[in-house]
Structure formats: structure tokens, C-alpha cells
Amino acid sequence: MIRIAEHNDWVVYCILGSIFVYIILLSVFQRDANVKDFLMQKMEDSSNLTPTWIIVSFVRCLMVALLLSQFVPVIPKVISDIHIFGWELNKFGFTLITLLIFDFLRNILTFLFYSSVGSNKNLKSLTLIASKFFFLESIAFIILSFILYYYPVDLVQYFYIIIFLFMGSFILKNLVYIFHNQPILPEKWYYKFLYICTLQIVPVLVLWKFLF
Question: Which residues of 32-59 are buried (b: 16+ CB within 10 A; e: fewer)?
């Protein structure tokens, strides 16, 4: 019998690629800023918000896909039956594409929501603060992904640790949105409640149900 060893070189490529992209982000789009300068950046000094948001969101989706794809139980048959040039999606590809589509749709809905309630001026603050938060979050996910693939861990316990960290990060993010000194959410309290429920909590529950 021939034993085929599993190699995780693709994980290293994803992690190193993400780090390289962040270096380009700070040196090119943030004008040679370091991590501290980027995190302490004020609204009036911010630049290239849109490309920064896109890059950070993509790296975050990539790292979340690395973490969760190992625990996704099965790929839906309607998707696994799709073959392109003889190739089909594995769990990592399925998770990554799902997260990218999820992020894209939620961003569009967020823009429409802010436009409909007349809070377009707060959208720039949301983009800046969310970019900083997701930047830190993705760095934490890089570390967690490296531990998952290259250290002997109990997968069941590690899965619960990841879920606990996701929940803590989710709660912390919304607290930052609510209590930040910059106006991030719409001014009226019922719009804030509506945003958190419809564009934060509900989409995450739908995504969880779809993946697991």
C-alpha cells in the first residue's frame, strides 16, 4: 500500500500571500504607514478607503475560509455536481466563494440601507473603522490558521475555541460601532437597532446555516 502524505503548502501560500498583500496595502495605499499609523489614522487623514476596504475584506474572507473549511461537513450536491474543465470545488473553495458572495451582498445592502435612511455621511466612518477592525481580526485569523494546520490540536476543542472567538469578535465589533466617538451608525436609535439586527445578526445566522 502506498501512503500519500498530506501537504499543506497551499496554506503557507495563502498566509504568506496575505502578509505580502498587507505590506503592499500599507506601503502603497497607506503611503508607507506602519501598522500603528494605520490603526491610529483619523478620518480627515484617511485615503484610499475603497481599495483598503476591498483588500482587507478579501484577506479576512481568505483567512476565515482557511479556518472554517476544515469543519464544513459537506458541500451541497447542487454545487459539487458543477465541474469546470474537470475540476470541482473542494471545501476550501466552496467556503471562500460563499464568504466572498456573502460579503459582497452585505456591502451592497449596507450601502442601500445607509442611503435610504439618509446617513451617507456615516458610511465613510463605517468603512474606516471596519477596515481597522477587520485588519486586526485577519491578523488573529492568520495565527489561528497556522496553529490549526501545523500544530497537533484537538479539532473538536479547537472548533469550539474558534466559534467562541468569532462570537467575541462579533460582539466587540458591534460595541465599537455603537460606542465609538465617531458617528458610525445612523443617528436614530431604531435605525441602529435595525442595522444590527438585519445586516449584522441575521446574515451571520443565514451564513452559518448554509455552511453547517
Answer: ebeeeebeebeeeebeeeeebbebbbbb
